[in-house]
Amino acid sequence: MMKKIRCPGSATIINAIATGFGSAFGIGLDIECEAKTIDEGIRCSNDVGASTDLMDLCVEKVFERYEIDGNAFGLEIKTKSSLPMASGLSSSSASSNAVVAISSKIISEEFGLKPLTDMEIINLAIDASIEAGVTITGSFDDATASYFGGVVVTDNKNREFIIREAMDDYNILVYMPNFHSKSGDSDVNRMRVLAPLVETAFEFAKNKDYFKALNLNGLIYASALGFDSGIAIDALQAGAIASGLSGTGSSFVAVCDENSCDDIKDAWSSLEGRVIETEVDNNGCTFL
């Protein structure tokens, strides 16, 4: 048996590290995952040469949930990505969602077992990400924006939704500098000092004023983490609807319409790195 799935990344509206409350929305950059049954064991690989520890752990957790003997049944899983790694665009959430979802679907169909629910898949993926050390808060906001698409506002501590809805279709520009920034390596104490300011930004998100929330959150976290907030301000000056640091960096996102995208690309043209064009994703994880 073989299956394929794609899971999108997400961009940050509110980074949950400071307060435990977050917000994110799905974007068109994604991870595609292909899985097939093998005689035994777990074989994982990806097209970017990254560690497969998280992928392995995701499959192991699905095996444990279904009480599968890895000596009598196995899965080979491969991923390919248009989503930059370690850049604040939820690559870990997209990968863990994809691997857990596809593993559980194959096993449930192969053995005639009850499929995992959406939330069971998401929670297993988050548990694996925490255990692998690739997330600080569990990233419930990132995981659910990836899995369902659209925009979410979440209580990450309790893994609960405050808002979950489709987002209007916008063009998204992503500025990717020539370096990466892993969430698990970020200075948590430095970010939590700014919690009162992030709470103000979160109030905007709760009131569905997502773009004010994104702008303010981006400025706060860029300052805390030593990124150049001028990158976002340049985008706003060029006509962006919103712009800010995504996650703990290193990427910046700009929300734009047809009239402003080219001007924003011009404003970012002198920066070292690259600009990626994508769009809002309202579809989430989808079997192909």
UniProtKB/TrEMBL annotation:
Catalytic activity: shikimate + ATP = 3-phosphoshikimate + ADP + H(+)
Keywords: Amino-acid biosynthesis, Aromatic amino acid biosynthesis, ATP-binding, Cytoplasm, Kinase, Nucleotide-binding, Transferase
One Gene Ontology CC term in the entry: cytoplasm
BP GO terms, sorted: amino acid biosynthetic process; aromatic amino acid family biosynthetic process; chorismate biosynthetic process
Record domain GHMP kinase N-terminal: where: 59-150
Domain called GHMP kinase C-terminal: residue spans: 235-270
Name used for this protein in its record: Shikimate kinase
Origin organism lineage: Archaea, Methanobacteriati, Methanobacteriota, Methanomada group, Methanobacteria
